[in-house]
């Protein structure tokens, strides 16, 4: 998003943060995502509700007048606030509407006391999909009908994960933020962690970590970054031993496989 768009989104996001009714937020999230889908499908409407020649109130009235009878008050208020802001382009508004739907889901899960579980379920879903090449190809195939890929998500998650997790996984399938399925899922995990005021550390080890070792690593990272850190641990025997830790763009690689690679490279350079 450009500068004006970022400011407009931030203003609506601040309004979202004031809401506390988890059930209303869950309903509003689905409604906002449905309206975002309408904006994606209707470029003329997208241009109309981001047209700088109209006042913010006129843009808000236009959108609410079109969809207000089909969505509840919470979604109406948030969407009305969103389109009333200044947007650098219709595409920025579309991105903002999609992100607003996702973040409304995240805030709703937080208000329900379920966000930590949703965050972990999304991460584990990514591990399941990433660990099966055929499944990863089927879910991540952007050329396949999205409804077919939604059915795969339902088969894997419905009844086994929180409803918010299922909906967020479907947003990843749709390529949230223009990302690949894996990239979108990673971003959703991070948004959930950010809502809980945490950073995410992706940890790769050769064998499962004990609870004590996880706690020790979490405390060390919290001291380094000045905030709580959510550990997302992947077991990969190929690293042989040690650990690889990725926090944002910071990579700490103390794995045996990395040390062996360094030795081989050093010997090759002689």
From TrEMBL:
Xref: Pfam families: OSCP
Keywords, alphabetical: ATP synthesis, Cell membrane, CF(1), Hydrogen ion transport, Ion transport, Membrane, Transport
Taxonomic superkingdom: Bacteria
Protein topology in the membrane: Peripheral membrane protein
Location of this chain's protein in the cell: Cell membrane; Membrane
Keyword Protein transport in record: no
Main location: membrane
Family: Belongs to the ATPase delta chain family.
Role of this protein: F(1)F(0) ATP synthase produces ATP from ADP in the presence of a proton or sodium gradient. F-type ATPases consist of two structural domains, F(1) containing the extramembraneous catalytic core and F(0) containing the membrane proton channel, linked together by a central stalk and a peripheral stalk. During catalysis, ATP synthesis in the catalytic domain of F(1) is coupled via a rotary mechanism of the central stalk subunits to proton translocation.
PANTHER family: ATP SYNTHASE DELTA CHAIN (PTHR11910)
Name under which the protein is recorded: ATP synthase subunit delta
Lineage of the species this protein comes from: Bacteria, Bacillati, Actinomycetota, Actinomycetes, Micromonosporales
């Amino acid at each position: 998003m450009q500068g004006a768009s970022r400011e407009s989104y931030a203003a609506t996001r601040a309004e979202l943060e004031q809401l506390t009714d988890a059930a209303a937020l869950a309903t509003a999230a689905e409604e906002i995502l449905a309206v975002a889908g309408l904006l994606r499908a209707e470029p003329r409407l997208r241009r109309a509700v981001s047209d700088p020649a109209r006042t913010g109130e006129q843009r808000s009235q236009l959108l609410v007048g079109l969809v207000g009878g089909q969505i509840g008050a919470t979604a109406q208020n948030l969407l009305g606030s969103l389109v009333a802001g200044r947007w650098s382009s219709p595409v920025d508004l579309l991105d903002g509407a999609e992100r607003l739907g996702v973040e409304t889901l995240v805030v709703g899960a937080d208000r329900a006391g379920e966000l930590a579980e949703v965050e972990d379920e999304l991460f584990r879903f990514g591990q399941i999909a990433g660990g099966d090449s055929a499944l990863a190809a089927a879910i991540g195939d952007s050329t396949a009908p999205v409804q077919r890929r939604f059915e795969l998500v339902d088969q894997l998650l419905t009844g086994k994960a929180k409803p918010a997790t299922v909906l967020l996984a479907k947003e990843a399938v749709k390529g949230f933020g223009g990302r690949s399925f894996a990239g979108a899922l990673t971003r959703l995990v991070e948004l959930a962690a950010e809502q809980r005021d945490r950073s995410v550390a992706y940890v790769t080890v050769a064998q499962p970590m004990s609870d004590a070792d996880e706690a020790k690593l979490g405390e060390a990272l919290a001291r380094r970054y000045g905030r709580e850190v959510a550990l997302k641990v992947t077991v990969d025997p190929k690293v042989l031993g040690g650990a690889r830790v990725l926090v944002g763009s910071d990579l700490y690689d103390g794995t045996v496989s990395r040390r062996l690679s360094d030795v081989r490279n050093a010997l090759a350079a002689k």
